[in-house]
């Protein structure tokens, strides 16, 4: 408990490690809204240890970004130790990810897909705890039974784990089958071990956090999705989404990150606004945005659209069916995203299968209708959906030019500088030593590269021979 109290400062409100989401700018925003401890995103230990660029980007931090824990994933004890040694001067602890249930973790054989390999996990935790000057912590998911979960937690504690985060879901609870986390497993682990235990799962607001602390006895609560949809969760607030969005964009300007991170955060902050039919154009615009100015412009548009309702200058009325959009709070306020229950998801899948089987048995096809209720074919329905996704795109933009190649009867390449089809263009470039950017045929460029490579190779060979002669002469003189 000394590590949790004295080193970390007894944090209760904790932001989880989130891939492409808990970068420096978002961590600073979360701390501004009450977060007491943050984790870096999950870092790949092998890539971290060998790639300086990846390492520098991953360790981006500042004085305000404390306390901080760096999280690694991997399955090789030596590589994980090497990565941890490179990171230990930039954080207060190294966390081992044993909870990621995603497909990428299964392919890479790390995260929750190591939870059955206890000898390997014991080796990893013990090796890091012996050779690092800072503590080692772990983040895990529960097993099907409390007995096995407790045994798992004790193994990690005995190996040298100084703090344990327990996610109350199993490895299989993810995506549409996520369901609720079982806090009783967290409580069982907390009662069985002598190290600090943090609870993870089911936190959508501060009332959930307080209830979790009371029911589990955990020292702190880790929040992931709840933080992304409402970063002011720790302050009992539901601010209009444009306020944290604008603050976040200002932080991104100071501490840059990939546009995909920014886009993902804005989609979550405005999750309840963008699906409205009125805002379809804003959703499309945000999906295509790729500069900070464009992101700021979209946030300002949403603010101008909904600020009169927020101030009370206009009266807000829901314009869609309650069963599809049933919110207690107005949609422009930051608020939780509530997933569909696994039971409902399974029922929908079963209903679709039954409907398909019924049509197959009856020999009937599914009926499609346009926006006015007129029957149309499946092909026409797909076309309408494509147009609705990209309403600004001309309907006939996909039609190919009818112009023909200058040398043959094949269609002309639309971007070819020589007005040829691809075959004729390739022949011309090969014969005349040319490049065609339109067809991406780079004969001239590749030939020049081959010449340079050959010259460099000859120089290297000559230098090696000369160095060898000098070495032989020196040996003879000796």
Automatic annotation (TrEMBL):
UniProt keyword list: Flavoprotein, FMN, NAD, NADP, Oxidoreductase, tRNA processing
Superkingdom of origin organism: Eukaryota
SUPFAM superfamilies from the UniProt entry: FMN-linked oxidoreductases
Keyword tRNA processing annotated: yes
Cofactor(s) demanded: FMN
InterPro entries: Aldolase_TIM, DUS-like_FMN-bd, tRNA_hU_synthase_CS
One Pfam family of this chain: Dus
PROSITE patterns recorded: UPF0034 (PS01136)
Regions of compositional bias (Basic and acidic residues) in chain numbering: 359-369
Gene3D superfamilies: Aldolase class I
EC number assigned by the record: 1.3.1.88
Catalytic activity: 5,6-dihydrouridine(16) in tRNA + NAD(+) = uridine(16) in tRNA + NADH + H(+); 5,6-dihydrouridine(17) in tRNA + NADP(+) = uridine(17) in tRNA + NADPH + H(+); 5,6-dihydrouridine(17) in tRNA + NAD(+) = uridine(17) in tRNA + NADH + H(+); 5,6-dihydrouridine(16) in tRNA + NADP(+) = uridine(16) in tRNA + NADPH + H(+)
Domain DUS-like FMN-binding, chain residue ranges per copy: 15-243
Primary enzyme class: oxidoreductase
Region ranges (Disordered): 359-380
Molecular function, one GO term: tRNA dihydrouridine synthase activity
PANTHER family: TRNA-DIHYDROURIDINE SYNTHASE, TRNA-DIHYDROURIDINE(16_17) SYNTHASE [NAD(P)(+)]-LIKE
Similarity comment text for this entry: Belongs to the Dus family. Dus1 subfamily.
Identification of the protein by name: tRNA-dihydrouridine(16/17) synthase [NAD(P)(+)]
Annotated organism of origin: Rhynchophorus ferrugineus
